[in-house]
Amino acid sequence: MRWILLLCLSWPVLADTVTLEEYLERPEAFGNVVLLRHALAPGGGDPANFDLADCSTQRNLSEQGRQQSIDLGISLAAVDFDQVYSSPWCRCMETAELLRLGPVTSHMGLASFFQGHVDRQDTLTQLDQLLYENTQQSKLLVTHFVVISALTGRGVGSGEAVVYNPATKDSWRLIISP
Question: Which residues pair with 105 in a beta bridge?
Answer without folding.
Answer: 85
